[in-house]
Amino acid sequence: MKRCTAQSFEVLGDPDADVAAGVRSALGEQGGRTFSPRIAGFVRFSSEARD
């Protein structure tokens, strides 16, 4: 983040507290940040879940 300025940053889904704190810390006062809960849509499952 030393060489760029974020105008906005959107996190889709529900990050845990550590991730949310990291995003807030990295962005500081730059741009807007939005945390949007997952409502519906595409979900990628890990390859371990496949048969």
Would you give an account of this structure?
The protein has 51 residues and is of the alpha+beta class. 22% of the residues lie in helices and 20% in strands. The protein has one helix spanning 17-27; strands at residues 8-12, 32-36. It has a two-stranded parallel ribbon with strand order 1-2. Helix 1 (17-27) links the parallel strand 1 and strand 2 (32-36). The longest helix is centred in the middle third of the chain and has 11 residues, at 17-27. The model has no long low-confidence stretch (mean pLDDT 76).
Q: Quaternary status of these chains?
A: single chain
End-to-end separation: 41 Å
> What integer value in Å does the Rg equal?
14 Å
If you average the pLDDT, what whole number results?
Answer: 76
Q: What topology, given as strand order, has the largest sheet?
A: 1-2
Helical segment count: 1
Topology order in helix (H) and strand (E) letters: EHE
Number of strands: 2
Unreliable runs, pLDDT <50, ≥5 residues? Answer: none
Strand fraction equals: 15-25%
What is this structure, in a nutshell?
The protein has 51 residues and is α+β, with helices and mostly antiparallel strands. It has 1 helix and 2 strands; from the N terminus they run βαβ.
Q: What are the main properties of this structure?
A:
51 residues, alpha+beta, two-stranded parallel sheet, elongated
In terms of topology, how is this protein built?
Blueprint: E1 8-12, H1 17-27, E2 32-36
Parallel strand pairs: 1-2
